[in-house]
Known about the structure:
Elements: E1 6-15, E2 18-19, H1 21-30, E3 36-37, E4 50-51, H2 65-70, H3 73-89, E5 100-106, H4 111-124, H5 133-137, H6 141-150, E6 156-159, H7 165-178, E7 184-191, H8 196-205, E8 232-240, H9 241-246, E9 254-263, H10 266-277, E10 284-289, H11 304-314, E11 327-333, H12 335-338, H13 345-352, E12 357-358, E13 381-382, E14 387-394, E15 398-405
Parallel strand pairs: 5-6, 5-7, 10-11, 10-14
Antiparallel strand pairs: 1-2, 1-8, 1-9, 3-4, 7-8, 9-15, 12-13, 14-15
Helix pairs in contact: 3-6, 7-13
Amino acid sequence: MSARRVVITGLGLATPLGIGVDPFWEGLMEGRSGVRPVTGVDLQEMPTTHYGQLPPIDWDRWLEPKEASLWSGASKLAVVGSMLAAEDAGAGGDWAGPRTGVLLGTGYGCSYEFEQHYETWFSKGWKKTKPVTVPKIMANAPASHMAMKLGARGINATISTACSSGAIAAGLAAQQIRAGLLDACFTGGLDFICNASIVAAWNTLRVLSRRNDPTASRPFSKDRDGLVFSEGCALLVLEERGRALARGGTHLRRGERGRGDQRRDQHRGARRRGRGGGDPHGARGRGDRHGRGRLRERPRDEHPPQRRQRDEDAEGGAGRAGAGDPRLQHQGAHRPRDGCRGGDRGGGDGPRALPPAGAPDPELRPGDPECDLDYVAEGPRSLPLRYALTNSFGFGGQNSVLLLASPHGS
């Protein structure tokens, strides 16, 4: 029996660059930044004022009035993302039933509703708290609402591993399909977090950039001064390849070839991903780095397999960067464009790796001697590549690596 292959057939994106796939890719290719002065939040003279905040969303376009009033912001965002992903997957997609699952990653869950609840509790007392608070603040609510809206009755779970949440969710979803437990899965990650208490906490942590301009995120630049906080949603429709083709889903974006998770040691995670993918040595690809941009971090630590690969190639190509590692010629990071989006970090990097051309990262400025690989920084670059690797590093050492391959040549 041949192995079941997993493909990405739909994308649902809501990012600081806009709502939908086209605004996201257009913003990336043009080198535009979604980082801007935050609005609607009382910053109380906090030192950092620029974030990757979502543009206004017309919830009524997607949701019934009762849903819009009773659901948390994170739940509404999840459902909008899933509907966009289903639409992008094309006609013929019947998502109802036990063979479709939902695996969603989130770092903060429904933190905005927690903040509202505590404000009411402290200012007005417990009798003024609303009974709908319970379903609003539960971290699993967004995934549950997605499943109810889609009619999906397969596995439904929420993953929370900081910035790797979306990546780990996507990897687990692919494993479920490959194992024959599902035929399709809505997966990825989200965080809806530009609220005062979370923003204040990140300010006091002193890891945010204080540059306060659209170019504040410079993860591989010598003058980096911190990360840029952000929010958004990036959801994928994963399907078994045969099922997708049978329903007429010829819009295959990428195949998921491998996944590696490893606490603390991302090097071993990358090697696990290579073994899971079974990819031919010598294939060329792009590496999308986590790109936090904190001053005290060593940026070279974000891509040890690629540095080792380059050193081995210089010595005559006798060695390998790990079993099945593709050769990742070009490096980049999405954070200069739309910030650190928390739990959707991993899910967001999948869509970023899908365009046929390499999107530029103008803020990946040269200057740090430790950043000596080939970064796509000067402008869009035509990259007819077969592979894309993304890595996601969560606070607490919960890391993940995903490998995507062209469905037409993998």
